[in-house]
């Protein structure tokens, strides 16, 4: 089992319900949620002419290796109603792996730690809140 820090967001439809549905699917298919943050509204990143996002963070324990977890999360996004738009476009549900215990990876498909930890303040705030008291060494990222 490994710890994974997920960041979830929604800016289409009933954002609160979309996050709730996403959490249920993550818990059912990816692994138990150990900690979560309350939702926070954030401005869109990249393409700014779209509705604001509602975001939250989840710390889960998972049996899935990183690439398998990524593919599972993409399946969860679709199951929750996400449909293709464009890069950084609006979405019903977005689930990113921000950190995965013991893994650093830089491929086209998966970057760990997630670049959002450097680019987006709310990613860092979520990480600090969820990783407090764990063995993750957040300050070394």
Task: Explain what you see.
The structure is a single chain. This protein is α+β, with helices and mostly antiparallel strands. Helices cover 31% and strands 26% of the residues. It has four helices and seven strands; from the N terminus they run E-H-E-E-E-H-E-E-E-H-H. Strands 1, 2, 3, 4 and 5 form a five-stranded antiparallel β-sheet that branches. The protein has a two-stranded antiparallel sheet with strand order 6-7. The longest helix has 15 residues, at 15-29.
Number of helices: 4
Calculate the terminal CA-CA distance, rounded to whole Å. Answer: 22 Å
Major β-sheet profile:
5 strands, antiparallel
> Low-confidence runs (pLDDT<50, min 5 residues)?
none
Helicity, in percent? 25-40%
What's the rounded overall pLDDT mean? 91
Query: How many whole angstroms does the radius of gyration measure?
Result: 14 Å
Share of residues in strands: 25-35%
Overall form: globular
For the secondary structure, the number of strands is 7
Class per helix and strand makeup: alpha+beta
* H and E order: EHEEEHEEEHH
């Amino acid at each position: 089992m490994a710890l994974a820090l997920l960041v979830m967001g929604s800016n289409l439809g009933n954002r609160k319900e979309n996050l709730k549905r996403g959490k249920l699917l993550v818990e059912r298919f990816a692994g138990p949620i150990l900690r979560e943050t309350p939702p926070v509204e954030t401005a869109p990143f990249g393409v700014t002419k779209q509705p604001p996002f509602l975001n939250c963070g989840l710390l889960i324990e998972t049996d899935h290796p990183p690439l398998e977890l990524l593919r599972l999360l993409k399946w969860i996004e679709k199951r929750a109603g996400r449909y293709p738009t464009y890069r950084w476009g609006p979405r019903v549900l977005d689930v990113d792996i921000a950190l995965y215990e013991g893994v650093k990876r830089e491929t086209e498909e998966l970057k760990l730690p997630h670049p959002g930890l450097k680019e987006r303040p709310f990613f860092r705030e979520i990480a600090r809140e969820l990783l407090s008291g764990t063995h993750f060494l957040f300050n070394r990222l």
